[in-house]
């Protein structure tokens, strides 16, 4: 199902635009998606690094 603008939380959208300085709704949504993805990618990378270090310690 493709979301429509009617499905968007307008309060969250306005707040995102205000905090980010986005000049359009599309810009705000795209920015929020990029930030969300980057945050979770960073968490996943950090978790992999912790697991790698733990495995190295246990191998010694």
Structural class: mainly alpha
User: Average pLDDT value?
Assistant: 90
How helix-rich are the residues, as a percent range? over 70%
Largest sheet: none
Q: Report the order of strands and helices.
A: HH
Strand content: under 5%
Low-confidence stretches: none
In brief:
This protein has helices at 10-20, 25-59.
Describe this structure in words.
There is one protein chain. This protein has helices spanning 10-20, 25-59. The protein is mainly α. The chain has a domain at 22-60. The termini are far apart. The mean pLDDT is 90. Residues 43-54 have a biased composition (Basic and acidic residues). Residues 41-60 are annotated as: Disordered.
Itemize the secondary structure elements and their pairings.
Elements lengths: L9 H11 L4 H35 L1
Helix pairs in contact: 1-2
Features:
elongated, 77% helix, mainly alpha, 2 helices, 60 residues
């Amino acid at each position: 199902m493709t979301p429509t603008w009617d499905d968007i939380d307008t309060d969250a959208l306005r707040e995102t635009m205000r905090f980010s300085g986005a000049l359009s709704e599309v810009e705000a949504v795209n920015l929020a998606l990029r930030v969300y993805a980057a945050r979770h990618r960073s968490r996943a990378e950090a978790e992999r690094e912790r697991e790698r270090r733990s495995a190295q310690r246990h191998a010694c």
